[in-house]
């Protein structure tokens, strides 16, 4: 098996070319060393094919960055992904999932045995879930802001128990998963030269008491509409009737490190902070039920409460839907 010693860029990143080149070569070097350790620890099943998958995932990282090159938040995207040191494959005993990010070692590991879907080939699915994990690295900036807010509210006595603190975090984690998946789907279909499928209905007997939900996600479909519901409580999104466009707008906002601060500021400015907490709590229950439905966490209570949480979220977000344009100095008195 021939090892790749130098990563050569396929795309021109203008003023950022040197930074991207340096990043991907660092990832290649570290990933090759990590792959060798995995091989020594008997975590690799097929050395050649899985090494090639590792290289593919590094290539997909360049593609992900290139797809974002003209995004106004590109600096934040590149800065966030620059924290990644390793991109490799999941060990043999962890291949029941698509991929996983390990912040402690700044590593992204992808399942090298992914099968295709009705619309995407195995390679295209692998590209999608590489992008999904990269998206978590970007969102990590504002997920840290969630922790900071929780700690502040605990000090102020506004959050008084661990369960409420955890649900608040989990509610924003739902937004993390949904916005990450939405951006990854757009990226994967664009690079495949394909159109994303239209939204349709699916059901899971474990979720929402089996009530069908609307989605066009490959996975995490149950989180798509709850995130869209929440998005429409924000100025500049509530006036968008198309579900896909509304979530896409929210997903693009989530590329900003100030995403959470801006949400808190908007709710505070409109005197609606007291309604934010029950919204986020309901989303936390739905997110936990989602994880429990595929066996990640044994949370039977969240599964049982998922339908009532969805109904509660729907009522709150419908009452708070904001049809105004995004806040700016020009409409400060509106």
Present the secondary structure layout:
Layout: H1 17-40, H2 47-67, H3 74-81, E1 86-89, E2 99-102, E3 107-110, H4 122-156, H5 162-192, E4 200-202, E5 213-215, H6 224-231, H7 243-253, H8 259-269, H9 273-293, H10 300-320
Parallel strand pairs: 1-3
Antiparallel strand pairs: 2-3, 4-5
Helix pairs in contact: 1-2, 2-4, 3-4, 4-5, 5-7, 5-9, 6-7, 9-10
Number of helices: 10
Relative helix content: 55-70%
Task: Assess the beta-strand content as a share of residues.
Answer: 5-15%
Order of helices and strands: HHHEEEHHEEHHHHH
* Sequence of strands across the biggest β-sheet: 1-3-2
List low-pLDDT spans: 329-334
Indicate the overall shape.
globular
Strand count? 5
Mean pLDDT: 95
Largest sheet: 3 strands, mixed
Distance between the termini: 65 Å
Give me the secondary-structure category. Answer: mainly alpha
Radius of gyration: 20 Å
Brief digest:
This protein has helices spanning 17-40, 47-67, 74-81, 122-156, 162-192, 224-231, 243-253, 259-269, 273-293, 300-320, and strands at 86-89, 99-102, 107-110, 200-202, 213-215.
Describe the fold and architecture.
The chain has about 325 residues and is mainly α. It has helices spanning about 15-40, 45-65, 75-80, 120-155, 160-190, 225-230, 245-255, 260-270, 275-295, 300-320; strands spanning about 85-90, 100, 105-110, 200, 215. The strands form two sheets. It has a three-stranded mixed sheet with strand order 1-3-2. A two-stranded antiparallel ribbon has the order 4-5. The protein starts with 16 loop residues before the first helix and ends in a 14-residue tail after the last helix.
């Amino acid at each position: 098996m021939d090892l790749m010693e130098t990563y050569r860029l396929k795309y021109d990143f203008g003023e950022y070319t040197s930074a991207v080149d340096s990043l991907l070569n660092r990832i290649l070097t570290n990933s090759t060393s990590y792959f060798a350790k995995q091989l020594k620890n008997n975590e690799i099943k097929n050395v050649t094919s899985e090494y090639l998958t590792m290289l593919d995932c590094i290539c997909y990282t360049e593609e992900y960055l290139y797809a974002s090159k003209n995004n106004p938040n590109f600096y934040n995207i590149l800065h966030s992904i620059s924290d990644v040191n390793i991109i490799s494959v999941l060990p043999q005993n962890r291949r029941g999932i698509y991929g996983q990010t390990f912040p402690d070692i700044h590593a992204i590991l992808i399942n090298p045995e992914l099968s295709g879907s009705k619309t995407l080939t195995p390679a295209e699915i692998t590209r999608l879930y590489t992008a999904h994990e990269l998206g978590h690295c970007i969102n990590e900036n504002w997920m840290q802001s969630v922790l900071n807010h929780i700690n502040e509210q605990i000090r102020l006595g506004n959050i008084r128990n661990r369960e409420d603190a955890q649900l608040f975090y989990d509610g924003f984690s739902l937004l993390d998963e949904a916005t990450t998946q939405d951006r990854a789907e757009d990226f994967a279909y664009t690079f495949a030269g394909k159109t994303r499928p239209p939204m349709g209905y699916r059901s899971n007997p474990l979720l929402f008491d089996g009530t069908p939900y609307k989605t066009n996600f490959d996975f995490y479909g149950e989180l798509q509409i709850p995130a869209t519901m929440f998005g429409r409580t924000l100025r500049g999104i509530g006036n968008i009737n198309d579900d896909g466009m509304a979530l896409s707008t929210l997903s693009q906002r989530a590329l900003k490190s100030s995403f959470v601060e801006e949400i808190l500021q908007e709710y505070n400015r409109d005197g609606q902070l007291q309604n934010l907490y029950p919204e986020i709590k309901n989303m936390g229950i739905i997110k936990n039920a989602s994880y429990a439905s595929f066996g990640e966490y044994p949370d039977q209570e969240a599964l049982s409460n998922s339908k009532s949480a969805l109904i509660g979220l729907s009522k709150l977000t419908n009452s708070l839907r904001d049809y105004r344009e995004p806040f700016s100095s020009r409409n400060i008195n509106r």
